[in-house]
Write a structure and sequence with these properties.
By secondary structure, the chain is an all-alpha fold. It has a domain of 41 residues. 53% of the residues lie in helices and 0% in strands. It contains 4 helices and no strands. It starts with 7 loop residues before the first helix and ends with a helix. 10% of the residues are buried.
């Protein structure tokens, strides 16, 4: 069982996105979700597989849930 803490860098790598600090900051700046009514995994900018990964991470309370929740908070702020 993997008990390591996942980071934004690891999450972005898992999602197949650029994962350096500048790329992550740029992604968050340009993909803000202005309505709390839009769940993170339903945002239009995710591919089907990315969306499924994010949904599963939260609904199954996987070891990714904490960092996915942090991303959700960052995109909804």
């Amino acid at each position: 069982m993997d008990t390591s803490q996942h980071t934004f860098t690891a999450l972005f790598e898992q999602l197949g996105l650029a994962s350096d600090k500048d790329a992550i900051e740029q992604f968050i700046r340009t993909h803000q979700l202005f309505s709390d009514e839009v769940p993170l995994h339903e945002a239009s900018f995710w591919s089907e597989s990315q969306s499924e990964f994010l949904r599963e991470a939260l609904t199954s309370d996987s070891d990714w849930a904490e960092v996915v929740d942090a991303l959700n908070n960052s995109l909804h702020s």
